[in-house]
Write a structure and sequence with these properties.
Blueprint (H helix, E strand, L loop, with lengths): L4 E5 L3 H13 L2 E6 L2 H10 L3 H16 L2 H8 L14 E3 L6 H10 L3 E5 L6 H7 L2 E5 L6 E3 L2 H7 L8 E5 L9 E5 L9 H24 L14 E3 L6 H13 L1 H8 L7
Parallel strand pairs: 1-2, 1-4, 2-3, 4-5, 6-9
Antiparallel strand pairs: 5-7, 7-8
Helix pairs in contact: 1-8, 2-3, 4-8, 5-6
């Protein structure tokens, strides 16, 4: 039985949406947030300048293009959790902080759900017991970050989706529970597809946990190979400019229209 659930997440609107939905449906005993601003600050403190520059670039790009606003609006219908079901949230500078390990040990979760945190180290993995990730990418082909963008950029439209999977010591290499594929419109950009797929995956995870609580088991299949790992710094300004040029010239739309997959109106 999955009677006690812990959540480790960042502070984006879809993370708050997921946290609220889990609290409405299950007994959440621990919520720990690692905000994106603190991830950037840590990169600066540790003098990981390349990571810091690209994290900052993408934060500004999303703000200036209205993508952060779009995501906030898309997930603004989060359910209102009654006070009796609200689990206090703890914010940390680093998800692998020893105090996070202590909180997990004290909470004794049967299941830990993670979403967009830094890569978990062994101490957290051991303390968290069974861990499930909602990954914004179609595994095993797209691991890491910006997976929806690169699937569009590479014109691999059949590899657009989010994946619910078990977490191991690798980066998005754990056994797959289920891939969630969103409907695609020719007018969609990466943000629209990502938001649509993540909301679908969050609701699907609720269904899967409910199934296990009723005596079932999570589906499980191993990843037969490791797809490409995309890091934040792999998406450079020229990738964005190139894709933008494809869009304004109609090349992207023509490629998507010619695709043999399912396109919706």
């Amino acid at each position: 039985m999955l009677d006690r659930i812990a959540i480790l997440a960042s502070d984006e609107p879809h993370h708050d949406y997921m946290i609220a939905l889990m609290q409405m449906n299950f007994h959440v005993v621990l919520v720990v947030k690692e905000p994106g601003s603190r991830m950037r600050a840590r990169a600066r403190r540790e003098k990981r300048w390349r990571d810091y520059i690209y994290m900052t670039y993408h934060n500004w790009r999303r703000t200036l293009l209205g993508l952060n606003s779009y995501r906030s609006k898309y997930f603004s219908d989060a359910c209102l959790v009654p006070p009796g079901r609200v689990c206090p949230q703890t914010t940390v500078d680093y998800i692998n902080d020893p105090k996070v390990v202590e909180m997990l040990v004290d909470a004794k979760p049967d299941l830990t759900i993670i979403m967009a945190t830094s890569i978990l180290k062994c101490e957290v993995l051991e303390a968290a017991s069974t861990i499930i990730n909602v990954h914004g990418g179609f595994l095993p082909y797209y691991r890491g970050n910006h997976c929806f963008f690169f699937a569009l950029y590479n014109r691999e439209f059949d590899k657009i989706g989010s994946t619910i999977h078990f977490v191991n010591a690798g980066i998005d290499t754990g056994d797959i529970i289920e891939a969630v594929v969103p409907p695609i419109k020719v007018t969609d950009n990466a943000e629209q597809l990502y938001s649509r797929a993540e909301k679908m995956a969050i609701h699907r995870l609720v269904d899967l946990i409910t199934l296990v609580q009723q005596g079932g088991e999570f589906p499980r299949r191993g990843q037969l190979f490791k797809g490409r790992l995309y890091k934040t710094r792999d998406r450079k300004p020229w990738h964005d400019l190139h894709h933008w040029f494809r869009c304004i010239t109609g090349a992207h739309r023509r490629a998507l229209t010619a695709w043999k997959g399912q396109i919706v109106n």
